Amino acid sequence: MVVVASAVVAAVGGDPMTVLGEDGLRRPAWAAVDPLLRTYYDTEWGMPVRDERGLFERLSLEAFQSGLSWATILRKRENFRVAFADFDPEIVAGFGQADRERLRADAGIVRNRSKIDATIANAQATLALRDEGGLADFIWSFRPRTTPVPRELADVPTRSAESLALSKALKRKGFRFVGPTTMFALMEAVGIVDTHLLDSHRRGTSGIWS
């Protein structure tokens, strides 16, 4: 993700993937230098998201991130919000051919035809899930009994039994671009699991995991 400059941050405990910032807070290397990533890590990543629109946005952005860096998506996030009506699933579900063409011509987002079509299909699937309790309850029902306890980035898994199960369940409901690795990233981002390193200042701050 981010190459950490030793002049800016110092390694903690000999682990080059865990760094101490000039503010005295410990973060993984990917969140240690770039101000945008650092703010996202400090204030948002891993905090619980339990509302439909919030989860639809995170689900959509994780799909667009597939094959790209998260920094790329984060820098385009406001453009995505404008392009996709602030990720209101009711509006996105009604996008027609003119909207698809508009999105494919929008240089401010990722202009991938398959991902754009998937986002619209996922909005429609999100509306359908309301009859079964809604997207938020559905996704959170796959919360595991325990969470990883990583000391370094090498200890952080990229998928789990729960993310595989969530992936399969969402696909059965008509969702696309919801593979098990993408779903594990979603679970990390919205607090369903806590993969903050044990010596990070964010470990245990979600209120979900100690």
Jot down its keywords.
single chain; 210 residues; mainly alpha; 10 helices; globular; disordered N terminus
Kindly state the percentage of residues in helix. Answer: 40-55%
What's the helix-strand series?
EEEHHHHHHHHHH
CATH topology of the largest domain: Endonuclease III, domain 1
The CATH class of the largest domain turns out to be: Mainly Alpha
Radius of gyration: 18 Å
Principal-axes shape call:
globular
Low-confidence stretches: 1-16
Mean pLDDT: 92
Strand order of the largest sheet: 1-2-3
Number of domains: 2
Number of strands: 3
CATH homology superfamily name of the largest domain: Hypothetical protein, domain 2
The class by helix and strand makeup works out as mainly alpha
| Span of the ends, CA to CA | 27 Å
Number of helices: 10
Estimate the strand proportion.
5-15%
- For the record, the CATH architecture of the largest domain stands as Orthogonal Bundle
Largest sheet: 3 strands, antiparallel
InterPro entries: Adenine_glyco (IPR005019), DNA-3mA_glycosylase (IPR052891), DNA_glycosylase (IPR011257)
Protein name: DNA-3-methyladenine glycosylase I
Binding site for Zn(2+): 196
Organism: Naumannella halotolerans
What does this entry look like structurally?
The chain folds into two domains: 34 residues, no CATH class; 138 residues, Hypothetical protein, domain 2 (Endonuclease III, domain 1, Orthogonal Bundle). A three-stranded antiparallel beta sheet has the order 1-2-3, with no helix packed on it. The protein contains ten helices and three strands; from the N terminus they run E-E-E-H-H-H-H-H-H-H-H-H-H. Helix 2 runs antiparallel to helix 7, helix 2 crosses helix 10 and helix 9 packs across helix 10. The protein has 210 residues and is mainly alpha-helical. The chain starts with 9 loop residues before the first strand and ends in a 21-residue tail after the last helix.
